[in-house]
Predict the structure.
Amino acid sequence: MKTEALHAAHQTEEQPLHHQFEEVSQQNESYVVGMWVFLVTEIMFFGGMFLAYVLYRWRYPEAWYEAHTRLDVAMGTTNTVVLLTSSLTMALAVHFAQLRNKRMHMAMLGTTIALACVFLVIKAFEWSAKFHHGLVPGPGFLWDGTVPMPQAQLFYSLYFGMTGLHALHVIIGILVIGTLALLTFLDHPLVKNDFIPTELVGLYWHFVDIVWIFLFPLFYLIPK
Amino acid sequence: MKIDHSHAHPIGMYLKTFAALLVLMVLTVVMAFVHVGPPESSVINNLIAMAIAATKAVLVVLFFMHVKFSTQLTKFWAVLGFLWFLLMFIMFADYTTRPREYIRGWEPAAEDPNAPAAMPQPPAR
């Protein structure tokens, strides 16, 4: 009974308001807008690589088609499902953070981390197959296709560059979500009774998902 | 009893968004192998693939990232990044209006105007 009373008291506690803000809604908006400004810089960061991709695909369409047939569509599709599911669990983590259901909040953060790890493991299998077949750009690049080797090498440079930068974001995501889960577990004042940290980490994670939503058709599903 | 502090959205909304994302993903995989439009041209297929990806991105932004329920200032910043991304492609006005410059060794030999005809081997660099 006593724990229930404590729980009820915890449920009714106000979201903490930091001294520089007038009210909680203003504070929340400031945090969310700040995160979106960061995401705009991330769009610009990835944007240059997307532009390079489109320019060279427009220039060498045959090479793009032929080189992409060496990628594994089944693995790419599996990874898309894994990442979309992790986005759902991240959204649910925010939902349970709003409801202040610590157990489910932690469980959803943990599931998101697990799915992110599955994504990286599948990616590692794909990459090691490319290393095995000599499809890594550089002096060891082996190409036996019909299109000229430099064009195919350019495709794989962009493939490793863009999926690599994306994978780096997944790794950073795992570290950030892990830190958030630890702070939540410890009832740290930074996250106690405040869902906004989870919301901001969620925004980052959904952005990583959106990048993959575009990378998947651009690399694995090039039409003839 | 659960007290809602922050207008949490129903779980159904997230599940419906997720289901729509999966359906669109299956659609994009299928459409990669079904040729649409004039033969010898993949333009329609590319447009379909990008339209599906953009729809998926909009669903994620609106529902998973809560932009549909956010303030005007948040919406402004959310749109700004993607708008900048699209404007960047104005660069194609430059690339598509210049003659194509061939790079030695980068084109199939038959199409390469820079390919040395008499020399069996290009000079070592």
In short: Chain A has one domain: 24-220. The radius of gyration of chain A is 22 Å.
